[in-house]
């Protein structure tokens, strides 16, 4: 007789029930998979009219809008020549087999002709994924691809260029605003994703004299903070973006131990605290 403090062991089911359970799992798994695929296809069909009406927000930047976005990217590249040169050098040195083309590539302009390639980029050209980009475009494609907010990336591009390039005309500003709104304001899927993360981390106390830049809610302003700063993700979603980014790009140093922080940026553009 079992002692009162001990819970009686549940008897093992008969062997035939074990076999029956295994058979049910084997049969049910493909059925649930098929149901999921069918449900997803139905949902895509239901939202298709909306996504076609707002084509640029869901399917990609139209070629007729390439020029104005590329103009802003070229200005950004000239404003932040050190960043783009650093990025282009390290990005181009990667083995292309390690890089999978991000699905977001179609939301940014490509240099599609020899005249564009020769006249467009004042710093560098990046060739990858079967396309040709200016260095600044490749940077924004990568940040978009690892999960940072496309809306915030376009806002950063607009803010930096319009504040620092007095030669922009009112027409160019209006054209960029029009394209930005088309790309960023009507994306159905983006509306379903929370733009804030309630989780929170604390700033490191061992940074010493290093400049510390906290980053929350997919913000992207840190990228223009200058070389050598310590970027600190402050919520779990932003942390996930930085983890994907540092796996892909050697431009940012991963700080995973206290010793990594002591060693500094070691020739990389910035440091990212992943501890």
Written description of the protein model:
The chain is built from eleven helices and six strands. By secondary structure, it is of the alpha/beta class. Among the domains are: 63-192, no CATH class; 212-273, no CATH class. Strands 3-4-6-5 form a four-stranded parallel beta sheet. It has a two-stranded antiparallel ribbon with strand order 1-2. A hairpin with a 2-residue loop joins strand 1 and strand 2. The longest helix has 39 residues, at 15-53.
Question: Which features characterize this protein?
Answer:
275 residues, alpha/beta, four-stranded parallel sheet, two-stranded antiparallel ribbon, 6 strands, 51% helix, globular
Summarize the entry for a quick read.
The protein is an alpha/beta fold. Among the domains are: 63-192, no CATH class; 212-273, no CATH class.
SSE blueprint:
Layout: H1 15-53, H2 55-58, H3 66-79, H4 81-92, H5 114-120, E1 125-128, E2 131-134, H6 135-145, H7 150-164, H8 170-184, H9 188-192, E3 212-215, E4 230-233, H10 236-248, E5 252-255, H11 258-263, E6 270-273
Helix pairs in contact: 3-7, 4-6, 7-8
